[in-house]
UniProtKB/TrEMBL annotation:
Keywords: Membrane, Transmembrane, Transmembrane helix. Residues 348-481 form the GGDEF domain. Residues 485-733 form the EAL domain. This is Diguanylate cyclase (GGDEF)-like protein. Gene3D superfamilies: 3.30.70.270, EAL domain.
Amino acid sequence: MVTNASIVLLGAYLVWYAAGWGDAWTRTVVTDVVYVPLSLSFTALAVRAACYRRLDAAVRRAWWVISAGFGCQLVAHTLWLIDEVVLHRHVYPSWADYWFLAFVPVMFAGLLLLPGANRRYRDRIRLALDVLTVGASAFMVFWYLVLGPIFATQRSDLITKLLTVALPVGDLVLVLAVSTVVLRRTTRAVQGPASVLAAAICAFVVADVSYIYIQLRGGFTGGAWPDLFWLAGCLLLVLAADRQYRWAEHREVRVERRVAGAAWLPYGAIVIAYGLLGVVAGAEGAYPFGGMVVGSIALTALVLLRQVYALKANEELAVTDPLTGLANRALVNERLATVTSQPIRAHKRTAVLLIDLDRFKPVNDAYGHEAGDAILVAVGSALLSSVRRKDTVGRLGGDEFAVILEDLPDQEAAEATAQRILDALRLPVVFGDHLLSVEASVGLAFRNTTKVDGDGLLHQADVAMYSAKRAGRGRYAVYAPELDGSARDAGLRRAIETGRMVLHYQPEFTLTDGRMTAIEALVRWDHPTHGLLMPEDFIDLADETGAIAQLGEWVLRTACQEALHFPCRVAVNVSARQLAQPDLVASVARVLNQTGLPGSRLTLELAEAALLPADQHLRTRLDGLRALGITLAVDDFGVGHAALNVLRHMPVSTVKLHGSLTAGVHTDPAAHDLTAALVAAGHAIGLTVVAEAAEHEEQVATLRAMGCDRAQGFALCPPLAHDELKERLAATAKT
């Protein structure tokens, strides 16, 4: 509100000033009056920024000092208004001039207190040289325009002369401070406001030099053209203070960067200084010195051009991938930081594409690194041909590329670009006598919130890219929160900790007399938005992220506690990751002791693949579990790589045949014969055989006829919640 009012006030003044309304006295009064609300605005906004707790302490400390400098400006403009408009007094130097002078050291300190990046000793030396170069050039300009004439005049008394000298010297000091802020790397927290502060100081310097120049030649009155620069500087101070406060809303975006074009500042200062030298030489008739002045200027210009060329080459080298000529990771990160620091605009979408080549390593291994490099170069060219000139294309490393698309009209435009990239990459690459084929998987992420920074966008695109790979490669996928394994992993772990996981139990029956001999614990996720999720919806995620150990321990402990209410064994699945844990036996023993469940009432079901390789460490852990009285069973047998001969040497007593083997025993003769052979082989080595997924009565009858010991499935009993199972057992006991 204050900022908008300041802009409107200055805009109205400029219209009034340009129209030439009012006489000289009116222009003086209006100009002097406008300064006061502007000064009050930037002082109040600076104090607001200094008090804002969301800003870092170092930033707030700097803004407290800057606020004091702004206060000096407020006092000075108020005193000037009183002297010139109220008292009609034209005194030089006045009290207002002293307060203007006080602004210099305070503002100098505030600018230097703005936090910058940690710099190496070499960087600090280079910064000092650059700042001194700018300062020396500024001194030449100041000397020619004001300092020289001040010392040359004999009309002023000592105090007046000292103050007149102090003002341009103070401006020179501020030039040094501004150069330091602009040339050094600053955090995003202060980079934007510092740039606006620098522009304000530059406007003040121009106005101050003009003011002294006019004072030396007849006296200054309000309403003259230097006031336009002072007023512009005041508005810039308002904008700087407001911008510092508003930055805190986006404080998650923090990168170290340098003001764009700042590296050229010392060279620009030298050009200005030599330009001034040429003007003075022409005005004073200094050309009789021969070609020395012109030659010095020419030689310095050549050195500058050489340095500028070297600087540009070094900057390009620092941000360019040497193989493909694309932007490297550093430049991609910088562009992402810039993009994510900007406000989100309607109909101006920003998207990030992450491209990973499919099966690049086999080609690289088969044909050599030269072939791999040829593919990477061709991919870079294909990417450039598929996007606009304004888009950023970079290589992050290896065979991974990134594209930043800005100012898109809608999501469809980004998806169209992703499809063009896929089509372009399907063209074969010619390498010698070989045609090398390459495809890619592309992940696409959109910037939909200011809370996601550049790294977050890359992460989202990475999640989407791996989703495309899992879906079959050679395609693109758009990021959605449900694809994010880290978010789902965190949700899964929270569900375990907050009691959102529940156990259902599927009974297991003997096929001879139909007696229930065991119950298998089956975990479910009671998701707050998706309802009851089956294991296939989250077990793979838990295994990938390592949450399977936490989940497995919870299932074991809960099943052992609840099994105390049931008159039969409880079977609990053990993952391969759990089985590989050295402390597995001690962990299971601890759960049994804490819950009070006898080991003889617990069956641990092991995945078939987890038994390979059958090394001594695995055998030791299995023997330890058996020593606790626990029964060991092999789950989902018949679809993995383990053989009955391996089981013969393991301390397991039960095999559970996978449902894909038993599904067709009552209709498919081949399935019947295979299952019967496995049942017989299991019995031959002393194992109890359990059939899974018995879904039909005919299936159960066939399994019973071939001698299978036990079965479980919907034909016998579906999985039941804890209370449902208790009710079923109670009803069975009554009958």
